[in-house]
Design a protein that fits this description.
Elements (H helix, E strand, L loop, with lengths): L4 H11 L7 H11 L5 H13 L4 E3 L7 E3 L5 E6 L5 E4 L3 H13 L7 E6 L2 H8 L1
Parallel strand pairs: 3-5
Antiparallel strand pairs: 1-2, 3-4
Helix pairs in contact: 1-2, 1-3, 2-3
């Protein structure tokens, strides 16, 4: 892949984000640093970075795709109230992989698990 300053800026923006941003959020952050970047450039480069394994695209049911710099197998917890997405590194993932291999004969090559629920902040607000 040929070097591109804008692509590198997009990658760095996602790598510095802990909030699993959408393409539109990434566009706004990159545009603050480089006003010449277009939305199309951001989308094309995000897709390329995902295809080449530099970023992970997280498909959110009923929502916009999010982008993640954490590439190892892990899960995502999505709050159905506020929409925040958090990384979850559950100890159960190896157990799930083992179950799938032993009981189903299925070998997991990559895992991208999305869990839906209510985050602690929203749960606290609804309890008050």
């Amino acid at each position: 892949m040929k070097y591109s300053r804008q692509r590198e800026l997009i990658l760095e923006t996602v790598q510095q984000s802990d909030d699993h941003p959408t393409a539109d959020t990434i566009y706004a952050r990159v545009r603050a640093l480089d006003p010449k970047v277009s939305l199309g450039t951001v989308y094309r480069n995000l897709n390329l970075l995902c295809e080449t394994g530099r970023l992970l695209k997280v498909s959110i049911p009923g929502g916009s795709d999010r982008f993640d710099h954490t590439l190892q197998n892990h899960a995502h917890a999505v709050c159905t109230v506020c929409g925040t997405v958090s990384d979850v590194l559950p100890q159960a993932l190896p157990l799930l992989e083992e179950f799938l291999q032993q009981d189903c004969g299925f070998t997991v090559r990559r895992m991208n698990l999305v869990l839906e629920g209510v985050c602690p902040r929203c749960r606290q607000h609804t309890a008050s």
